[in-house]
Amino acid sequence: MTITIQQRQNVFDVALQHFGSPEAAFLVAEKLGCSITDELTAGVEIDFFESEIIDRLIVEHYRKNGIVPATAMVEIGIDLMEIEHNLIVK
Fold it and tell me: How many separate domains does the chain show?
């Protein structure tokens, strides 16, 4: 089977969605050749065996309900500002 990484997904999101357990984060990282803390690139594909699925009930629940977790942090505006330095609070 093939997985395609979606925008803002991290290895834990992929592990839950496609393997049914956060334990699979290490497997996902290994298949991608990265660390569990690395940012993933959307569109990258991973091949896996159905036998690698840890919890089929969770995978099926995500699939049936169209759940696509995407919890990776994105740097935007406010986190780049410092209060009282370049963000003035009035």
Answer: 1
